Amino acid sequence: MDVRTLVLTLALGNLALCAALFFHDTDNRQRGGLASFALARQFQSVAWLLLYFRGVIPEPLAGPIANLLLFTGVAFDAGALWERAGYPGWRRAVLPALGVAAAAWLACYVGGVDAGVRVAAGSAIVGAFYLAGAAALVSGWRQASMLRRFMAVALAVLGLAIAGRGLLAMAMALSLVRGWAGVEAVHLQGVGYVAFYLAMLIGGVGYLLLARETLQGELARLEVVDALTDVPNRRGFYGALAPWLALARRPGTPTALLILNLDGFKRVNDHYGHAVGDKVLKAMVEACRRQLRDSDMMGRLGGAEFAVQLPRTTLADAVLVAERIRASIEANPVKAERAVISLTASLGVTTMRADDSTVSLFKRADEALQAAKLRGRNRVVAAPPPGEAEGTGT
């Protein structure tokens, strides 16, 4: 495959990706990193088309404009990867660097600097942006997937190859080194375009696979996390509780369970609307979290009912924690548009026993919660220890 065919392949490959992105989920409006990735494809496809028609179209289009568009496209590729890595402010660093690089290359072009030097400068710019994209993929290396690690290594190698090709071309143009074993500048040019082609394939397809990987991870997370309050949902809480039920069969400090229900939450929804109800739930969760340790776990069972797991906590200590939670909720009313909403909560407390199943554990805690409601709400009731008939409460 000759160099001209490679250039056309790069142009058509980027155009194909542009078309795929155009027809992909039009309702999504290509928000976030995908929008930056789409812009990168557009810049690069136009740049490669201009380079393909070099000699047919005016030189300013096929020369400086094509190269500047190529620099911009590769810079946006790096930016899309940084945005995918969780750095939405990448433009504050990448765009100034792009401006400096473009100005330096234009100075070489306008100043009549030797073509080999311009090639070296352009290759170094492109290689540097590919390395910047690889750096984005390297962040969080320990938790990174194998796909992300492969892309990081591949883009770093290809970026170095593109930059190295330019430096060798410049050295040969300035007669600092001569071709060896039949290798001439045209061969180095071919190597550079092959590296571009591989970078387009790995960067383009890999980025889309990364986006799919991220989406799958988010969907998997939402299966076990409540989207509103960002705590485990019923499924997630039950799953995390299972190992502690097994540990309850061993001697040692027990693990406690609280069940909490906001008093009169239906009234809040009926009078103020579900948007205010959502705000109340989030405020209540934050009030609870301030009273919990990092090792404690809070989960939403449904509606305004939540559970809290307190590892290695006796019943007496769990009652104290529950009382702190109750007092914190009561002391932190929620400000809505039309009113200040005072909140109270009822809590049932128990500890895991050696013969407990999930059903028996929650049945006992729920009975304590119902007792708290029957006693007037806004109180804590502990399930009775084995052998006792009634719970204690505050």
From TrEMBL:
It catalyses: 2 GTP = 3',3'-c-di-GMP + 2 diphosphate. Its EC number is 2.7.7.65. Residues 253-385 form the GGDEF domain. Keywords: Membrane, Transmembrane, Transmembrane helix. Gene3D superfamilies: 3.30.70.270. It is an enzyme of class 2 (transferase). The chain crosses the membrane at residues 6-23, 65-82, 94-113, 119-138, 150-174, 194-211. The keyword Transmembrane applies. It holds the Pfam family GGDEF. The keyword Lipid metabolism does not apply. One of its GO terms (molecular function) is diguanylate cyclase activity. NCBIfam families: GGDEF (TIGR00254). PANTHER family: DIGUANYLATE CYCLASE DGCM-RELATED, REGULATORY COMPONENTS OF SENSORY TRANSDUCTION SYSTEM. This is diguanylate cyclase.
